[in-house]
Design a protein that fits this description.
single chain; alpha/beta; Rossmann fold; eight-stranded mixed β-sheet; 5 helices; about 35% helix; globular; disordered C terminus; hydrolase; AB_hydrolase_fold
């Protein structure tokens, strides 16, 4: 069991407003002073459909954030346009991609030489997550939790980083079998390794399964980060041996 004893504790985020030409974005930002992975890593987390009350204060969004915080990532949670203090109006996933891209630009402007940039999303946020990572080749990884049926219309030939799809076995909103098909659609891309996890007994909201969700997130991202460090070290050693 990898769930940290503090995984349910309240994390101290700073309330910020990200200024941009399309209007300000309401956000919360958690920043570490140091990272055990030597260089700064960041993640952008995207919330469920605003039409159904989704916001950056969603329970699953917080669980995702806690897992990344325990892995020393800086965490940025945003409200899509028209939610909370974010300016603008709901745009059915189109303008929301621009919100996510602007948030990533804010992270890139804030930090030099980022080691890792990840994007994660739940429900509607999972769909926006996928559209976002396919627009930015500098994103290193993604987590898409219970992405909606519209995800089948993504351009699966567009470059995509390694990542993971997660769904509850008894999700009443999106069929687990549909989500399990998405890694196969992405597998045609060179060097794309996409994982899939179905959490047994869980519904769409991961009721009574939030700790298991946390564990899956934590383990996957930690293993991926350690693998990247190992690969990077091997490349450096190989280069040094040729000098």
């Amino acid at each position: 069991m990898v769930v940290n004893k503090d995984s349910k504790s309240v994390k101290k985020y700073s309330d910020i407003m990200i200024q941009r030409k399309h209007g300000a974005i309401d956000a919360k930002y958690y920043q570490h002073d140091v990272s055990s992975f030597h260089n700064k890593s960041v993640v952008l987390i995207l919330h469920p459909d605003p039409i159904h009350g989704g916001s950056m204060n969603n329970k699953i969004v917080k669980v995702i954030g806690n897992a990344f915080i325990e892995l020393d990532f800086d965490v940025l949670r945003i409200n899509f346009r028209g939610v909370g203090r974010s300016q603008g109006e709901y745009d059915k996933g189109v303008g929301e991609v621009d919100d996510a891209l602007d948030a990533i630009d804010w992270l890139l402007d804030k930090h030099d030489n980022l080691a890792n940039v990840w994007v994660a999303g739940f429900g509607f946020g999972g769909l926006v997550c996928m559209k976002t990572v396919m627009r930015r080749p500098n994103i290193n990884g993604f987590i898409a939790i219970s992405p909606p049926k519209e995800s089948e219309n993504l351009n699966m030939l567009t470059p995509c980083p390694n990542g993971m799809f997660i769904v509850g076995e008894h999700d009443h909103t999106v069929d687990a079998e549909f989500v399990s098909s998405l890694p196969d659609l992405l597998s045609c891309q060179k060097n794309a390794f996409i994982d899939y996890k179905c959490i047994n007994g869980s519904d769409h909201y991961f009721s009574d399964h939030s700790e298991e969700l946390y564990e899956e997130l934590y383990t996957y991202v930690k293993d991926k980060m350690l693998l990247d460090i190992t690969v990077s070290t091997k490349k450096k050693n190989k280069k040094s041996s040729k000098l």
